[in-house]
Amino acid sequence: MGICASSKRVVQEQECDENVVYVMDEDCGGGAGEEEGDGHGASPAACRKVASLFSQKGKKGPNQDAVILCQGFGMEDGVFCGVFDGHGRCGHFVSKLVRDCLPFMILSHRNALLLADDDDSSAFSDASPSSSSTDGSGGGSSPSPAPAQLLDEWRVACANAFDAMDRELKLQANLDCNFSGTTAVCAIKQGKDLIIANLGDSRAVLATMSDTGYLTAVPLTTDQKPSVPREAERIKRCNGRVFALKDEPSVARVWLPDEDCPGLAMARSLGDFRLKRHGVVSEPEVTHHRVGRGDLFIVLATDGVWDVLSNEEVVSIVCATPRKQHASKAVAEAAAQRWRTKYPSSRVDDCSAACLFLRDQDWGSSIAPAKAKAAAAAARAPHGHC
């Protein structure tokens, strides 16, 4: 199996880092690059109007997190945003490979589904006069799919792509994924529709604001940890073992049937092939959200963030950040500081975040009603702004 994608990668100007990339998929079109006058792809400045990405290395070795933003994904103003948290000896290689390949695999499977639907419907086109417009122009356009149909299409595309990505990892001759792998949490924005695909224990949280300016953090994913009953039941049915170590009684891990290894702290992942026969799966949970007028942004982040900061704290930190392009850095720095104060004897984990903005208005004016409330909550989480 091979991977082919036509794209232009734009690296961050300041926090230049191989862990974070911005991509314009040229096959999808897109107007971001045209705003800058080159017509060939998204500039960093244009990308930062859409999202803020940042990855901060911890104290456990190489940074195993990877973050990506793809513009022009599926439609002219479509967006793909993904955060990946590698683990194991080769985790930093796995997360980057998945980051670079998975978005285009998802889009390829989605396009294949659409082509198959078109082929099926063309057989009935001659007998379907209702497909013509009723305004007399003679040219109709296909109606937008209903939310249930949209979710089904993306769910199948994501499931197929994650499976294909897992098989692709297994074919990598120079990459040992027996005890290495990665999580993946992805947000796909198509107009007002958001598709969230989650695998593992990274997380997506929506910030929404009421008419009175009250800010709420809404989880869009569920952490797929071995402690979750339905995840543990599946693993145990496949003869895997789930238990916590004595010095980490709150952290359930997955173990082989007859060996006290590897102690994986999540129930689903890409890679980790020795555990695939024992209940660890690569099937993502895919959900749909229709963007409402109060929805401000989505935060995607690795467990290095969520292990020490609550959903509400993260949303408040983003909302209180003066410049939206610095929002993800503020979150990562707050998490790193919290690690040092909450777990002084532990090594700080890698902390990575992506903030996908859902409003086109100026950052200050669009969230002004929520800023005062957010500032007090954010102050309780130590961090510094850029």
The gist of it:
By secondary structure, this protein is an alpha+beta fold. The chain is 32% helix and 24% strand. It has one domain: 4-Layer Sandwich (Phosphatase 2c, domain 1).
What does this structure look like?
The protein has 386 residues and is α+β, with helices and mostly antiparallel strands. It has one domain (7-118, 146-220, 291-379): PPM-type phosphatase domain (Phosphatase 2c, domain 1, 4-Layer Sandwich), CATH 3.60.40. 32% of the residues lie in helices and 24% in strands. The protein contains ten helices and 17 strands. Strands 1, 2, 4, 5, 6, 7, 8, 14 and 15 form a nine-stranded mixed β-sheet that branches. Strands 3-17-16-9-10 form a five-stranded antiparallel β-sheet. The protein has a three-stranded antiparallel β-sheet with strand order 11-12-13, with helices on one face. Strand 11 (241-244) and strand 12 form a beta hairpin. Helix 3 crosses helix 4 (147-170), helix 7 (311-320) crosses helix 8 and helix 7 (311-320) crosses helix 10. It is globular, with a radius of gyration of 21 Å. The N and C termini lie far apart (43 Å). Belongs to the PP2C family. Residues 124-146 are annotated as: Disordered.
What name does CATH use for the topology?
Phosphatase 2c, domain 1
**Helical residue percent band:** 25-40%
- CATH class reads Alpha Beta
Query: What does the largest sheet look like?
Result: 9 strands, mixed
Fold blueprint:
Blueprint: E1 7-10, E2 20-25, H1 32-35, H2 44-50, E3 51-56, E4 65-71, E5 79-87, H3 91-122, H4 147-170, E6 181-182, E7 184-190, E8 193-199, E9 203-209, E10 215-219, H5 229-237, E11 241-244, E12 252-255, E13 262-264, E14 270-271, E15 285-290, E16 295-301, H6 303-306, H7 311-320, H8 327-342, E17 351-357, H9 363-366, H10 368-379
Parallel strand pairs: 2-4
Antiparallel strand pairs: 1-2, 3-17, 4-5, 5-6, 5-7, 6-14, 7-8, 8-15, 9-10, 9-16, 11-12, 12-13, 16-17
Helix pairs in contact: 3-4, 7-8, 7-10
